[in-house]
């Protein structure tokens, strides 16, 4: 079984776009997220800390400031996740372990 370090859930192209009415913005964010995870080798099962999973979610029930990115298991929720912001989020938070507080719109303590 492969160990997972993070799971990135991006509400990018919801069927009822309440958080981000521009589907092109969400699609561009999703495309950049996929590209970066691959480019940085974060899907490599040989990674000691575990792989990074990514999922395009229809809705994360945070209906403002989209696209929305939820990072599990940290419980950090980012808003306004454009294709331009993805790289910094991945490098600083997912790889570096330091959330970008200015872009955080919420936190969720899983299992609490």
Question: Mind explaining what this structure looks like?
Answer:
The protein has 112 residues and is of the alpha+beta class. It has a single domain (4-107), classed as 3-Layer(aba) Sandwich (Glutaredoxin). Helices cover 27% and strands 24% of the residues. The protein contains two helices and five strands. It has a five-stranded mixed β-sheet with strand order 2-1-3-4-5, covered by helices on one side. β1 (4-11), α1 (23-39) and β2 (51-57) form a beta-alpha-beta unit. The longest helix has 17 residues, at 23-39. It is globular and about 40 Å long. The two termini are 26 Å apart.
Short description:
The protein is 27% helix and 24% strand. It has helices spanning 23-39, 83-95, and strands spanning 4-11, 51-57, 68-72, 76-78, 104-107.
């Amino acid at each position: 079984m492969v160990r997972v370090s993070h799971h990135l859930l991006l509400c990018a192209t919801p069927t009822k776009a309440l958080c981000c009415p521009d589907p092109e913005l969400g699609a561009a964010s999703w495309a950049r997220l996929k590209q970066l995870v691959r480019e940085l080798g974060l899907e490599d099962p040989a990674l000691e800390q575990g792989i990074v999973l990514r999922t395009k979610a229809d809705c994360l029930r945070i209906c403002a400031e989209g696209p929305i990115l939820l990072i599990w298991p940290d419980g950090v929720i980012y808003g306004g996740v454009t294709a331009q912001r993805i790289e910094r989020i991945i490098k600083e938070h997912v790889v570096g372990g330091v959330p970008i507080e200015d872009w955080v719109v919420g936190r969720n303590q899983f299992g609490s």
